[in-house]
Amino acid sequence: MRVLARFAGPNGEIAIMEDRATGARTYREGGVSQSCVLAGGETGIDYVRLMAALHADGASALLLGCGGGALATMLHRRAKCVTVVEVNPVSFQLARTFFWMPNGIECVTADMRTYLRREKRTFDAIGIDVGGPDFCYEAVLDPATIARVRRALRKRGRITVNISCESSDDPVPGRIAQRFMAVGLQVWVFMEDAPNAAELNAVILASARREQPAALADIAGKDWTLARLTP
User: Fold this and answer.
1) What are phi and psi for residue 19, nearest 5 degrees?
2) d(CA 130, CA 117)
3) Nearest 10 degrees: Cα torsion 6, 7, 8, 12
4) What percent of the chain has a predicted confidence (pLDDT) above 90?
5) How far apart, in whole angstroms, are the C-alpha atoms of residue 225 and residue 202?
């Protein structure tokens, strides 16, 4: 690996690393990996691929959180109108300079909660991928914020949320999922099946359509365990 750049970030040093053999690049902030992007802009992370697949049929997408911009890039290349909201404007510069994010993506510098309070547009797809050192999902994705996310979702739209977990029995994904169920959405949880990993990802799908379990299982593939939340 070689270091392409180092910057001072709000949560510690930002380092952009490149694999000499493959050209894949990694975005690390405060010692935590925020994104891995393959040469050209596609993601190198399984949960981002899953989120992109779940939003494959939406014409417009709102993404809360930027990182390396791989999810935004992938959806934009699939002929979607994409808006990305990120509190740290440096992320947009890094995504465009080092991670191949196209200029045609709308970038908004704002706290996601502030943005959702004022935004009047609605979207077919909403992806939430926020986090970092000492980040608290339950504080940021509080019931009021989730209600605003729900109002921004169009009929038959889908919301995805990535949550980083310390173990497969982490209670946080279930608590956040219940909040989406409380606003009238059908809710599923995809848990990464990687028992030896130091960190696991859970992807919540909150949907305004009737989902078919077999179709969702096909999208997820063998590396994810799928469960539906019921009241």
Assistant:
1) -75, 120
2) 18
3) -50
4) 81
5) 9
Order of strands, sheet of 32-37, starting from the edge strand that comes earlier in the sequence: 2-9, 12-18, 25-29, 32-37
User: d(Cα 13, Cα 64) in Å, to the nearest integer?
Assistant: 22
pTM above 0.90, yes or no: yes
Handedness of CA 189, 38, 107, 57 (dihedral sign): negative
CA distance 158 to 168: 24
Question: What is the CATH number assigned to the segment(s) 45-228?
Answer: 3.40.50.150
Neighbours of 178 (CB within 10 A): 14
Given a contact cutoff of 8 angstroms between Cβ atoms, the answer to whether 186 and 210 are in contact is yes
Please give the structure tokens belonging to residue 71: 């999810």
pLDDT in tens, 176-190: 999 999 999 999 999
Task: Give the residue from 198, 187, 193 showing the smallest Cα distance to 229.
Answer: 187
